[in-house]
Amino acid sequence: MGAEKTDEELMLAYAQGDVRAFDALYERQRGMLYRFILRSINDRASADELFQETWSRLIASRTRYRVESKFSTWLLQIAHNLIVDSFRRARPQAGSEETETVMRELDAPESERPEPVLSEFEQRRRLQLALEALPPEQREAFLLRVESGLGLEEIAAVTGAGHETVKSRLRYAFAKLREKLAE
Amino acid sequence: MSSNEKFEREFADFLAEEDSRLAALYRKLPQMEPDPRLDGAVRAMAHRALNPQLVATPQASSQNRRRGRWLPALGAAAGVVFAAGIAFRLGPSWHGDRGETGAPASDVISVRSVDAPPPAPAPLSPAPPPAENAAAPAGSASLSATAKLKMKSAIEAAKPASDAEALEKATRLDEGADNPPATAGGLDKAEKPAAVAQPQAFPAPPQAAARRRASELDAVERKQIMATGAWQNLHDRDTRKPGTSAAQPAPPVSDKRAATAAKPAVSPRQEELRAASPPAQISAEAPSKADQAPPPPASSAPEEFASPAPRAPAPAVAAPGAKTDAQADEGTARDEAVAPAISGQAAQKKENEKVRSKDPNAGLYPEHWLENIRAMLRENHHDDAVRSLGEFRKMYPGYKLPDDLRDLK
Measured between beta carbons, which residues in chain A are less than 8 angstroms from residue B4? Predict the structure, then answer.
């Protein structure tokens, strides 16, 4: 039932009072949204908070939803705004290097932390470190592209940046990650 | 193929969502997901948005619990604020009393209940209260409650010795009443209703001398003044113009001198009071001598004195020498006007006693006497009315008769 409908249809159904439509929609988007947020801010507690806040805002504005773009774009736009606000609030509190160190330990479960001795995890660890080292705008653009599967136009819509700007950010992100993985 | 070209091709593949090595590697990263508790919270939030009463999130339930905890506290606070508001609304009257008197509210109330004149205009009230009630409220605004009660009991006992003692005690208490703040406050409070009821009787005495003079005109003194006819002189002085006053002009003195001059006047008065019968006995003498008319109630004289009591201090204002002075000297003039008026009581008393024996209304307050004359006219007892009016003219020669009785013959 819900799987046959698009995200937009499910959202409209929920706006009209169909609770099960929301459950289906949530089931589709929850992983993607959570990972996008988590990898953007590298803090599980903050990611949980922003994840819940994103859905809260979506629920609150359900009656104002119009099918003008993809539902995922709208959802990620809400999350993006919250992430930007989070960065603005957190910026004076700690330096990037300190944050990197802490977040590196908090980011992944103990069993999933990359270990140098485990060659199979080596590339994943490097990718993870490289992602964390990216500037937020580049990282976000990369995540929106890889994690959320958005195109240039959609990323531009979510982030509010121009098409060429998004392409430039993706280019820089791609180059840095590639360089890290080649080391 | 250069490295640049290789990069551009890989980047184009990345953008085109084709098989990118980087994208493939990213998908191997741990697929983190929200924990079930977070999922439950979001779903509950979505359900509650559609039907708030069916589902409650744990967060919401905790909020409700917190709200429930605050409800009694808020209710109690609202109750306190409400009570404080009521108290504030009701507060100014007793706040002002307490703040002014410095005495407990019970004291003030007792003073008012004993001394305050009846709210209705007393001079025209025909029904006399019992003698024991009439003796006390005789305008003894200057006495403290304790002194008045003692004096009242002394009068009721009708024993000259104890009466004199009580009067002396009352006088001592009266003189000392200015010192204790509580008693003096009660005194002020007792004077206030009289001042409100008779604003002309106390034309805002600005100094302590006026208050002292008012305190000296206690109930018993005023009764004596009334009984001996001296009140009429005082009353005449009040009603007449200064130039026509029969009272001896009092030399203007300072307040301090007035205060000291008023004190010696107490002793002759006390002697007079000791010599004279108590008010109840005075009033009782009149009916015994007047056999023709029904005897007025024994309490008539005290009651009649009690009713105009607030007016009694007014005649002192009419001291001719003092009227032209500043208002500050009025109290002083009154002080000095009272003393000669009282000193002449003995002589006038004898004359008035003679006149009083001829008419049963002689013991009444003049206005009441005149009212009785009117009643006689209404009941067609014209001769009695004319005779009584003649007695009235003899007893109060300077009294300005009202228009309806002036030409009665």
Answer: none
Residues B183 and B255 placed together within one structural domain of the fold: no
Q: Do B30 and A59 touch (CB under 8 A)?
A: no
Q: Are B134 and B303 in contact (CB under 8 A)?
A: yes
Q: Which domain holds residue B192?
A: 103-117+135-197
Q: How far is A17 from chain B (nearest CA, A)?
A: 6
The alpha carbon of residue A159 is apart from the nearest alpha carbon of chain B, in Å, by 17
**Could you read off the pLDDT tens digit of each residue along chain B, which spans 409 residues?**
577 787 888 888 888 776 677 888 888 888 888 889 999 999 998 888 888 766 454 554 455 555 556 777 888 888 999 899 888 888 655 554 444 444 444 444 444 444 444 444 444 444 444 444 433 344 444 444 444 555 555 455 544 444 545 455 544 544 444 443 333 333 344 344 444 434 344 444 445 444 555 445 454 455 455 555 544 454 454 444 444 443 444 444 444 444 444 444 444 444 444 444 444 343 334 434 434 444 444 444 444 343 344 444 433 333 344 344 444 444 444 444 444 444 555 555 555 555 555 677 777 788 888 888 888 888 888 888 888 888 888 888 888 888 888 887 7
Nearest residue to B305 (alpha-carbon basis) of B221, B399, B380, B183: B221
Does residue B303 contact residue B296 with C-beta atoms inside 8 Å? no
**Sign of torsion over alpha carbons B91, B96, B102, B105:** negative
Asked if B109 and B191 sit in the same domain, the reply is yes
Single pTM value for the model? 0.38
- Domain assignment present for A16: yes
∠ CA B2-B6-B8, rounded to 5°: 115
Query: What is the number of structural domains in chain B?
Result: 2
